[in-house]
Amino acid sequence: MTNSINLNLITQRAIEEGVAMEKGKTTPEYFEACSIIEMNPEDIKRLGIYRNTNVRVTSESGSVVVKAVLAGQYCPPGLAHIRQGVWANQVVPPRTQSTGVPQYSGFPVTVEPAPSERIKSALECVQGACGLWNGGK
Amino acid sequence: MPVTHTQVGCPYCGASCDDLEVVVSDDGTKILEVRNACSIGNEIFHHATKPGRVKLPRLRQEDGSYKDISYDEAVDYAAKVLLDAKKPLIYGFGSTNCEAMAAIGRVAEKGGAVLDNCASICHGPSFLAIFDNGYPSCTLGEVKNRADVILFWGCNPMHAHPRHASRYSVFPRGFFTGKGHKGRTVICIDPRETDTAKISDQHLMVKQGHDYDLFNAFRTALRGHPLPEEVAGVPRDQILEAVEAMKKARFITIFYGMGLCHSDGRNHNVDIAISLTRDLNAVTKATIMAMRGHYNIAGPGQVWSWSYGFPYCIDLSKGTQCHMNPGDTSSIDLAMRNDCDAFFNIGTDAGAHFPIPAVKQLRKHPWITIDPNICMASEISDLHIPVAVVGVEEGGVVYRMDNVPIQFKKVIEPPEGVISDEELFNRIYVRMCELTETEPVWIHHPALDVAKAGTEE
User: Fold this and answer.
1) A21-79: per-residue pLDDT in tens?
2) Mind telling me how many Å the CA of A1 is from chain B's nearest CA?
3) ipTM, 2 decimals?
4) Fewer beta carbons under 10 A from the terminal one: N or C of chain A?
5) Where in chain B is the domain with CATH 3.40.50.740?
6) Under DSSP, is residue A129 helix (H, G, I), strand (E, B) or coil?
7) How would you write B125-144 as a 3-class SS string?
8) Which CATH architecture has domain B58-122+295-456?
9) Rounded to whole angstroms, how far apart are CA atoms B150 and B185?
10) Do the Cβ atoms of B160 and A13 come within 8 Å?
């Protein structure tokens, strides 16, 4: 029986993400910077996992595997943060409240442990969604 | 001898720092050193001359691979996609100059396109609120020289605008702010304890998505009415303490960011922030400023407002008139309704920064990326056209977050054969005119002046 918890997710900028993005979105730095979910220690405990374990994050519009880490910028219990970019946008709902802006911050997600699942690369996430992924050849 | 360029502009965030020093090798091809920039700006300049730059347009083949083609072929392809499409969507412009934004206008009109910029997924709600409620703003110079109370509401400049605090808002000593950091009260309102919250005097940890409630509490307290014990997760005492600090201020600036525009409420959050600013002006001087994300994302708002009357989400598909209706003519909504039949991604990365359902929808139609770098959008495109990096290999006018125009410099030449955004858009426009057998219309274009002078003789 795996634990799964419901959290409120926000996706925003981080300087590590900015530096890595300018280096290139296909670089290992970008992967390291963005394929993580920052959580409160209590929520990590509730999930029954160690820090730095892969988790599956599922929203109304998609699902993505990322690594659960302790938030460098403190998140209160119940709130989690995925840095903006490729992995965050696998789960960001495209609803815009008629303003054009998607729901980048403040949408419900389910988080469950996925220690045996692999985090996809940026290219695999985006090209895969468009049917262009050729397995990284 | 290496050459040092001074007063160079930084093509990253909305703070548009213009005090960089860039040391270029004596043959003018390599950037040796970048001074004064933050770690992100530093990376942009060094990245430009690293190996691996794309130097020719690349066209997607049937087997999914890319093949290099000439600029002429790419221009022809792009012109035909625009003319064939009923309602092409041209989106981006976070990272290019105003010259290119003016040039794309001709292309968009000719192609009957929807013209949109990154504000559409960023500060778009700010525009809506500003239309409704005004914008009592100021320049960053005034912030530096006058402001003694700073609010950072739903923004995190320590990460998104790394030099903002040191150049304008927290640390610098200005004309009336000689004590610098010591003379300023910094209040941060954010659901996380961000690095900006850590340098603030007071952090109000608002419950995510409840900013509107907290703004209401501020306005209520300012008018002297009682508050409940807690509003939006923030204890009454903290709210009253912040309000007292604001009442005593000589000059307040409220900086706000995506915490307001990306959360529930969107433009209403910004609307009430402006109302709070107006209320504060009954007591002291108060101003408000949107923390714009890119170095020239205020640019399309300016250029297209004076061209079309609207800053973003501009629908030109009806030919003789244009209109703007976010929620209808905005990129994400067009994508999700499958209401556009070609997509131009220019100086941005919709592949990485649009929600993936929107990317999937747009990918059903021709997708052309115009960007100097390899990014997610370039890797899913039918055609990728590389261009010069603005601010590094191409100068031009950019608008800082406070809508002050700054002339950016070029410090090195682009890779051989790589052209600027402006030249590319002009060539696409000319090709569209050739294909439709019409005369190009240029206004204030140097080429026109030369042509006129030639005929007069």
Assistant:
1) 999 999 999 999 999 999 999 999 999 999 999 999 999 999 999 999 999 999 999 99
2) 30
3) 0.97
4) N
5) 58-122+295-456
6) helix
7) HHHHHHHHHCCCCCCHHHHH
8) 3-Layer(aba) Sandwich (3.40)
9) 6
10) yes
